[in-house]
Amino acid sequence: MHDLMHDLAVSIMKHETCIPEHGKVMDIRKTLRHLSFDIPSIWAILDNKRKLKFPGVSLRSLICHKDEFTYDMADFSSSLLKQQNLRALHDHGNIKKLPNIVCKLEHLRYLAMSCYGIKRLPESLTRLHNLQTLKLMNSEKLLELPRGLKVMKNLYFVEIESFDSLLCTPPGLGDLTNLRELSIFIVGQDASHQIDQLKELNLGGSLSIGGLENVSNTKDVKKANLMTKNDLTSLGLLWTDGAEKTHSTEYYEELLQGLQPHHNLETIRIKSYQGFNFPNWMSALALKNLKKVSLESCRRCEHLPPLGKLPSLAHLNLDGMHSLKYLDDERYVNGEIPFPVLTTLSICDMPNLVEFRRGNSVESFACLKEIKIRQCPKLPGLPFLPTLRSLDISGSISATLLGSLRFLTSLTSLKLSHIPELAAFPEGFLQNNNALETLQIDSLPITTLSNVLDNLSALKNCEKLTPLSGPMNQTTALRYLHLILLPELKYLPESMQLFSALEGLQILGCEGLCSLPDWLGSLESLSSLFIEHCKNLSSLSDGFKTPESLTRLEINGCPELEKRCKKPKGEYWPKISHIPTIYIGGKYVQNIRR
């Protein structure tokens, strides 16, 4: 917003809006209509959370910003919730219980709340007959919605952020003809929960349909009229895992064939589908606008649909495709390029995957920038990927996979974690990866990094690792270094002085480390230093001097060092007192804003 327009809006609304600041007096006027606050600030202002009073005020909107702790809304806002003219209530806090008084706000149009501790919403919520928007955030524990939701005829938008725990959706949702967005519909066994409830709903945005194993007749799925819902941008088709025991593969294939969406669809997720083949509507002709595909736990599928021919596909996630051997086995003609705009690829739990593309060497993945590979033990290597920037590999891998990384010359970030077979890196590992800036090694059974230290950026959970050594002369571009859970690390190597661009250094769980070197002060770009749970780190070297650039120092779980850095009488306090922000032993010792 332009500054002049902002000033104009403020001048017009200043008597109707209030955003209290921490520690300042809150100006309560009778003209106040809109209040926005966070819990700590308003509690600090009021001293007693139960003394919150708004005499003569008629609020229209109330916004509580996100807070890190769980609370009971009724503890602080009983007087707020007696605001009978309230139209909008948006609570980002971690609510553990919804007060009954909320269900008496008969003029409420908009209700958004974080359901962190809520398993069931009260039936009294259905009294809010004027409610148009119901938005439930942090709803991982939510099991049930009010069964009488169908009487809320003015509902326009229902969003449930996380619905994996939801057992069912209320019956008769097809009666809510004003509904334009419904994030989840779960098919049940009785008529009021069948998929034909979606028939007359003109839904858009994001829709997931769960419990598809409860569709009694595969021909009934066409009654959902998905092809006519041209405003749908995202669709999830979800079966309950394990339902394949009660249905044949033919049932799955016929059912999915009948769930064809409108060609405007941009995102599709299919989970626990147990047919052998995907429907023919999953093609470039039917879904030319598709940008994101996620296929999960489709264990019987031996072939993917022709995803490589989708002209807009940018993100592909494959997880639990146990029978799949190739990501692509299509034929391409007339200069077609497979996966022309794909930028991110995630392949997880694929025990039989042996190759990205089968057969010919047609150039493919021309725009691929990020790959995540987890638990793909038979994948021998990666193809030439000239644009790849980020690679994350974890779980069991083949002995030859890492050797193929030398051809990924544009790689800037590499993470290797929890690979049980990897006791040593292959010869020449990373020798051609001159662009590499970040290397994170996490929970590997390795004992040395002598052949990879040239590009070291992050090091985690390698308990057998001996002290860092070796050349580091090519790490001057390094900005962040994390040394985590390295109990054998006894000192920081002097070659780290070459990290002239280093801005952040974290040392965590390095129990063998006893002292910090004096050359640490030569890291002229270092702005943040975090030292945690290094119980034997008790001293700074005699010539130790913190860099002038350092603006934040944190020391936790280092009892002796914490004692020596104590303000103001600790022997090391004079060496660190110039640092603006100092956090020691779980408390701010100094916090000077520059």
From TrEMBL:
The residue ranges of the R13L1/DRL21-like LRR repeat region domain are: 195-321
- Among the Pfam families in the record, one is LRR_R13L1-DRL21
Domain of life where this protein originates = Eukaryota
Recorded hits in SUPFAM superfamilies, A to Z, give:
L domain-like, RNI-like
What is the protein named?
Disease resistance protein RGA1
